[in-house]
DNA sequence: CATGAATGAGAGTTCATTCAT
DNA sequence: GATGAATGAACTCTCATTCAT
């Protein structure tokens, strides 16, 4: 009689393989770049042999694409749902979404995907298109929609949507790149935490710089 | 009237070679990344043979470093001089500097160097330190100084310096990455020009989003 | 009766590879010199592809070093043992050792290593030191000891040790170089075999040239 | 009226060029080996530019051959003349010739040629044949002739010519290789000078080792 | 004639990918 | 399915040789 409860460890491992490989690929691609990461390293980090990687992904390129696809659009939907059911002032929602994005995406591994997409966009045009369609444009539409809501309700001044969207996205991107490119080498010293910085930037954005 | 006896072509070429090679390297490294660019391609684009590259730069790494050094620190000094001799409201100066930086650095070839530094920082820690010392920190100090001036003169509200600096830099970096990563593939459709966008973002920053 | 189930060929090859590569390297380095031998040739002679060589030795230099270490110091110990357990006249022992060394080292592939060490000593100072420590000095000590024994027992005249050691080693080295440098091209015609020549030289050494 | 006494310095240089180049080539080929010596190094050492070398010798190979030819057979003739006109015991003549060869050939630059011929014989078969014809065989014939003279006059025992010739040449070759391969790196310590060693070896050869 | 900038064939080395075990 | 030994295309770099100046 086969065990009813747990799968055999070997089986469990096997099911987890693709995810483990994608995680390893993500970490290494972000840290060292796509070209500078050897496929054997990815396999080793996932705890398997070189050849095993190729049982799951037919090439390094495909591994990269799978890794990007796996780690992208997840949080966009969440944020959209949050936005849809929100009532009251938009400013607070935005602040909340910014912090949530940073905590879940920017600061974590998914943030690395954003960095690496910027870098490799030229080498993976189809992926770049995919990224724009699935990430950039939905995000811009989501934020753009919020700004329109805020303007309609009178919470916000009449501002150009496109520029405002850019201005809201830019700080997070900046922080992300600082973190993933120069972050952990003690090269970059900040007096405020990332969260404090983002919050302060949001306040500035809302109230403006002029006295 | 041009000189009747020009320098011998051979000699003229020799003097121009380093610059030609650096230009070729810049273009290719920005377009394809450091690792994905073959040194022979750089030579070919500069119109010379493979071996000639190595007469001027002892390795691909050194070529990269030279290319970075060549294209950085040039415009920092200019901006600092502009700021030092400026009188009157800071806001206008900032707008002006933003546009100037975009025109001279962000939009042009030097902007590509910023992108590529993000990518290769981890692979060239020594160069990353150089970049932070020569580019990032001076820029932050320059902009931070302007904000302090504005606050002392009463032009600006009392704002946290660090967050404000980040918020001023972020839009330019964002635009730069859009341009250099997704720009010339028709993937990214904008309704405003880069200059208009930056200007609109500056206005937003000054006046704030809230009604 | 051979075993019915032999080890898998793939595995068998793997165990044999280092030795096969060292043998190929020895043959080619001796024949053509270190620099003139392409690493791909070594691989080809060992029956593998270029890349395979680098799975076993990280560089051509390391391959060379491994090849030298592999082929030295082996026979010194044998000779020393032979000498230690010998009783009776030294002259016979010397004659015997000379012939043994020629048969096992000088004439064979190991002899080529001696030749190649002469050539490459300047390019591998660390290896030259190793060779002096492991081969030259032990040999000199061994032979010097025998001469002292012969002098103490009254078999030999009172002779200067150092000069005598040199004089005993020289003929073998000379023969070795003749063989490995001009040998198999039909350039060098001898009327006596190497063994006869060495024996005759030994006799001469013992009895002297004068009437 | 042209100068009667000295040629113009430029002219003097030009005439000396070939010799200077050959000297430089000799020194470097002996020190580093043929393959490891770059032709530019040879030119630099001769105080000319890379291209100039090729005005005198059409290739690195030809330079090598010229260098060998230049430095070979010179002293054989001298020794032969010395031998021809010698009267009295052969032993003294041999001792004298040995010392003279060491002083003029073995120890000096020509000695290096002998070393490098051993090494490169396989890569330059025609040169090897030339070397055998012009150096090895005349030397052997010269020494062989002396031994025959000594035997005929009763000064020497009846010995096998070939073996005796080898035995007389071997010590010098041994010394030469020690000197040129391991010599100037402090790796090889001797208590006697080369001249003393050769003299002691000659005595040993004459009187034999046995009591 | 001398020069040295330029060349490009060729060598060492790496690593994505394959496939026998 | 998993493995890792083997492969060879591709890449960086060197250096003998050429030739315009």
From TrEMBL, chains A, B, C, D:
Keyword Acetylation attached: no
Listed PROSITE patterns: HTH_TETR_2 (PS50977)
InterPro entries on file: Homeodomain-like_sf, HTH-type_TetR-like_transc_reg, HTH_TetR, Tet_transcr_reg_TetR-rel_C_sf, TetR_C
Origin species: Pelomonas parva
Alphabetically ordered keywords of this record: DNA-binding, Transcription, Transcription regulation
Signal peptide span: none
Domain of life the protein comes from: Bacteria
DNA-binding region: 38-57
UniProt key word DNA-binding: yes
HTH tetR-type domain: residues covered: 15-75
Classification of source organism: Bacteria, Pseudomonadati, Pseudomonadota, Betaproteobacteria, Burkholderiales
Name of the molecule in the record: TetR/AcrR family transcriptional regulator
């Amino acid at each position: 009689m086969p065990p009813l409860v747990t799968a055999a460890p070997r089986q469990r491992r096997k099911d987890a393989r693709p995810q483990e490989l994608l995680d390893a690929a993500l970490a290494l691609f972000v840290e060292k770049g796509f070209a500078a990461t050897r496929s054997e390293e990815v396999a080793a980090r996932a705890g398997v042999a070189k050849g095993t990687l190729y049982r799951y992904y037919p090439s390094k390129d495909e591994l990269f694409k799978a890794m990007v696809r796996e780690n992208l659009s997840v949080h966009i939907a969440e944020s959209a749902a949050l936005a849809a059911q929100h009532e009251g002032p938009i400013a607070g929602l935005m602040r909340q979404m910014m912090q949530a994005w940073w905590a879940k995406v920017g600061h974590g591994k998914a943030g690395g995907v954003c960095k690496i997409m910027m870098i490799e966009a030229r080498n993976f045009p189809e992926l770049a298109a995919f990224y724009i369609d699935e990430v950039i444009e939905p995000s811009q539409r989501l934020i753009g929609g919020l700004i329109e809501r805020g303007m309609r309700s009178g919470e916000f001044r009449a501002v150009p949507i496109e520029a405002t969207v850019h201005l809201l996205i830019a700080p997070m991107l900046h922080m992300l790149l600082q973190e993933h490119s120069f972050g952990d080498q003690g090269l970059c010293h900040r007096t405020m935490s990332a969260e404090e910085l983002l919050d302060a930037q949001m306040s500035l954005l809302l109230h403006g710089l002029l006295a």
